[in-house]
């Protein structure tokens, strides 16, 4: 890695998001991984899915080997200007449908599905018992 590495803006790096032109941001460093797209064990889709953002967490979560980390050095092209990286977005969970406590009709149907066959069986046994000739 050169000590006088080039400084890139986030917008500039984010433009490189295609299979034939793919740059990643990992640990405030910029990597041109275009030559590695076909060789990546997870496929090029994995690399393309982390373009346009800081991919540090994604890279670390996978648990790459030491050799993979060393291999990154040959794709290093510069640093990211941290002032241009957008703030992390906070996760906002999707709206859930409100809980409906009035489930009495569903409860009655389930009870009837259980009790009605028992009632028919009991009726059949009673009819058989009282109509049996001795």
Radius of gyration: 32 Å
The low-pLDDT segments are none
- Count the E strands: 5
Helical run tally = 5
Large-scale geometry: elongated
In whole angstroms, the N-to-C terminal distance is 103 Å
- Biggest sheet, spatial arrangement of strands: 1-5-4-3-2
Which structural class do the helices and strands define? alpha+beta
Could you give a short account of the major beta sheet? 5 strands, mixed
User: What is the helix content?
Assistant: 25-40%
Percentage beta strand: 5-15%
Written as H for each helix and E for each strand, in order along the chain, the element string is EHEEEHHHEH
Q: Mean pLDDT, nearest integer?
A: 85
List the helices and strands and how they pair.
Blueprint: E1 6-8, H1 10-14, E2 17-18, E3 21-26, E4 29-32, H2 44-49, H3 56-62, H4 66-71, E5 76-80, H5 104-131
Parallel strand pairs: 1-5
Antiparallel strand pairs: 2-3, 3-4, 4-5
What would you note in describing this structure?
With 134 residues, the chain is of the alpha+beta class. Helix content is 39%, strand content 15%. The protein contains five helices and five strands. The N and C termini lie far apart (103 Å). The model has no long low-confidence stretch (mean pLDDT 85).
What is the compact description of this entry?
It is built from 5 helices and 5 strands.
Features:
134 residues; alpha+beta; five-stranded mixed beta sheet; 39% helix
């Amino acid at each position: 890695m050169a000590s006088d590495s080039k400084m890139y803006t986030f917008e500039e790096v984010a433009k490189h998001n295609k299979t034939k032109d793919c740059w990643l941001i990992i640990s405030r460093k910029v990597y041109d991984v275009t030559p590695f797209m076909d060789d990546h064990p997870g496929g090029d889709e994995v690399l393309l899915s982390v373009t346009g953002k800081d991919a540090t967490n994604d890279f670390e979560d996978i648990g790459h080997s030491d050799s993979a980390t060393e291999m990154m050095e040959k794709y290093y092209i510069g640093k990211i200007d941290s002032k241009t990286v957008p703030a992390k977005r906070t996760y906002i969970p999707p709206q859930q449908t409100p809980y409906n406590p009035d489930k009495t009709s569903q409860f009655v149907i389930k009870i009837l599905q259980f009790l009605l066959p028992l009632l028919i069986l009991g009726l059949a046994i009673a009819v058989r018992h009282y109509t049996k000739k001795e």
